[in-house]
Every structure is written in structure tokens, then in C-alpha cells.
Amino acid sequence: MEDFLGYRIGLFVNNSSISPSPNLYSFTVSDNIYSAFPQLDLQFPDASGLFLEFGNFGQGVPLNIKFGVAATSAMLDVDFRSSRRDYTRPAGGTPGLNGILEVKGLHSSFYLNRKVPDAALKKMTVSDAVKKLFSFEAKLKVENTRGNIESYAFDDLYFFTKDVLLPQAASGKARPYVFFRNLHDELHFTSVDFLENSAPAENLLFGDIAGGIEEGNAYATLNFFLPYNEGLEKTLNSFSVAGGILKNDLSFGLIEKSVASDAKDKIPVVVGTKICNGRYFGRQFNPKVDYADLNKAFCADAMRAGFFVDKVFAGLPFHPNLAAGKTVNAAVSLLDSEGKPELSETFSGKWLIEQSFHSWDGTTNRGMTKLILCRSSMKPRRDSIIMDRAFTG
């Protein structure tokens, strides 16, 4: 693999040691905190049809992607296997088995032996069970859980962990656990709180702000930073705020005074899509709440719509250090009343990477990283009506 226009890039098909020239193909590799298997989307021109003829992209064929920046040691090195070929787009000229291949790939772990051994998971915590089942993983990240379980693992290892162990891990917690593998090959079984509390992997800058979050700390510059609400058309109007419900007219319901301790506290921006006790999110649950009933609502759709209402879609030049489950600090610019740039108090701060997309475009010879960022709390401007209503009695 050689440097190519400032990048280090390679596509290795079927364990070959030779990579085609990077200007001959394009791809996107992506991960997601709700998926145990990162994905690959590859566009490859097969002008002669010989790649199809020799089975280079048949189902299960190994596909290794290496993608980095020549000036740094940071590198994505991910193993996939082809899962399907959607279609070929004719390349023109003489008709034949030729065109642009659209190849899909799943992380290679999807194709490993996933049968669970006949092991009883008796009188151990969920976290210990996960550590036992995935002891072969080099980068296993597991948050400790409380309470014993008594189950027998059977059939598919990943499905058992997702369908049986994941719901049990959330017992007694306001926030759910997630089970996912990112593009750094880290397999996570952790709570959302654990992810959000992790140290930022990078400080990002958007707009014309001198210094950003910390002077001289704007290592990566965002090209765009946009509101993102896909799939949230039915988001509820009531937001959990401190000890009450902040309605869409910015007035409080249920109680007249906030229970926030001081103005440093953040306002939760999560909603309860199926949970009536939404005002307890971000704080201690009412002891009278039936945890078992609440946990039944923690399905994937409820988590997506209910815990990360506030999202943005951001993009920057290729940045291999950013992957799902990491956090970033963002310094975001806005214009003041005089048209001068200043730091946005509301949108600046820590964000969790829900999904990351790292792309190479062989037609333009450019690499790019796109991120879906999310958060469960916000820090409104000091002079905003939200701050006034939430933190003053």
C-alpha cells in the first residue's frame, strides 16, 4: 500500500496483497451504536466483467479496507465480507457482463462461528456473562452491572446477547445499555450514560471562532453542522426538564419551580416515547416506579426516538480517530446582533457520536468523515427564556 495524494488507502479483495489504484473505486464504511456489525458500501467499476466472472465479489468474499492520512499514524483497518451485490450499472459500449458494481459488506465478525457453547450463565452479573461469552475479543468494553442472572446461552451468540442480556442489563436504570462494534473493532456493552461521560476523542470547530473551546485546541474543522431529525416526526411536545415538564410554549407543567441545584445544571432534552415517568430521566427514579414495567419500553425504536432527540449531522475532512460511541467537544459559531461571530453556548459542548461514516471518493480523490452527533442534555444561553424558566424559582 502506497501513499496516494496525502492518503494511505487500499482495497484488498479475497486476501490479495495487491490493491487496485484508489482512483478506480469509492466506498463508505460506517458504524452505529445500535449495531454490532459495521457496514461497507463499495462502488467498483468492472469494465470487462472479469471481476464478476472470477467471483471476486461473491457472497462471503473477504474485503479488507485500509484508510488513513499519510501525515499521521491514524488508520482504519477493517475486515468485511461481501454480503450482496445490488446491481450493475452498464458502463456503455458493447453490451456484456460489465458495469459499476454496487457491493455491500458486513463486518467479518458476522460470519464467524457464532454458536454459543453449552455454558450455563448461573449466578453471575450480566457484565460477567458478556465477558465470558466474548472472552476472545481483543477490545471488549463492558460496563459492570448489578444483580445476578440465571440463563442458558444457546443458538446465536450476538442475538442472545442483544435479545436476552441487553434488556436485563438495564434493570433498575433510567438509561438503556447498547451493544455495538465500532470501526476501531471495539465491542461495547455499556450504558448510554457511560458513553456520554467518556473523555472527548477530539475537539472540533465550526465557524469563525478564535480559540474554540480552548485556545489553540481546534484540531479539526467541521465543514457543516446541521440539525438532524430523521425518524423523529412523532417526537413528543413535552421535554423532561429538571423536576418538571417543559412544554413547547416554554411554560412549566406539573410544578412551578425547578429542582435544579444551580445554573450549571443542564436541561435534559430526552423525551419518554412510551414512559409516563419521563420527568425522572437524568435523575434518580421515584422509588415507587416499577422498574420491570419501565424496562419493557426500552426497545431499539424507543431508544432512538426517546433518548437522543437533539441530533446534528456534521462533516469534516477524513478523520479516522472518530467512531461510534466516542464523544467530541464542538465549538460552534453563530452571529451576534452586530453580525460578529461568537461561541454558541447552546450547541457548543460535548456530543456523542451515534454513527460515523468514513468515505473515499475515487472520482474526486477525496476522503471525508460524516457524523451523526446526539446528546441527552443541553446548556441553554444564559439570557434565554429556557434558562430563566428552568433555573430560577
Q: How many independent structural domains?
A: 3
CATH C-level category of the largest domain: Mainly Beta
Distance between the termini: 63 Å
How many strands appear in the DSSP assignment?
25
Count every helix, treating DSSP H or I runs of 4 or more residues as helices.
7
CATH superfamily of the largest domain: Bacteriophage T4, Gp27, baseplate hub, domain 3
Shape: flat
Which key phrases capture this entry?
mainly beta, 393 residues, Elongation Factor Tu (Ef-tu), domain 3, 15-stranded mixed sheet, single chain, 3 domains, 13% helix, three-stranded mixed sheet, flat, Phage tail protein beta-alpha-beta fold
Describe this structure as you would to a colleague.
It is a single chain. By secondary structure, the protein is mainly beta. The chain folds into three domains: 107 residues; 77 residues, 3-Layer(bab) Sandwich (Phage tail protein beta-alpha-beta fold); 190 residues, Bacteriophage T4, Gp27, baseplate hub, domain 3 (Elongation Factor Tu (Ef-tu), domain 3, Beta Barrel), CATH 2.40.30.150. 13% of the residues lie in helices and 37% in strands. The chain has seven helices and 25 strands. The strands form five sheets. The chain has a 15-stranded mixed β-sheet that branches. A hairpin with a 4-residue loop joins β23 and β24. α2 runs antiparallel to α3. The radius of gyration is 24 Å and the shape is flat. About 18% of the residues have low confidence.
Question: TL;DR of this structure?
Answer:
The protein is mainly beta and 393 residues long.
Please describe the topology of this protein.
Blueprint: E1 3-4, E2 7-13, E3 26-32, E4 39-46, H1 50-53, E5 62-69, E6 75-89, E7 99-107, E8 120-125, H2 126-133, E9 140-142, E10 148-152, H3 157-169, E11 177-181, E12 187-191, H4 192-196, E13 202-206, E14 220-221, E15 224-227, E16 239-241, E17 244-246, E18 252-253, E19 267-268, H5 291-295, H6 300-307, E20 310-317, E21 327-335, E22 341-343, E23 349-361, E24 366-375, E25 377-378, H7 385-391
Parallel strand pairs: 9-12, 13-14, 13-21
Antiparallel strand pairs: 1-2, 2-5, 3-4, 3-23, 4-7, 5-6, 6-7, 8-10, 11-12, 15-20, 16-17, 17-18, 19-25, 20-24, 21-22, 21-23, 23-24
Helix pairs in contact: 2-3
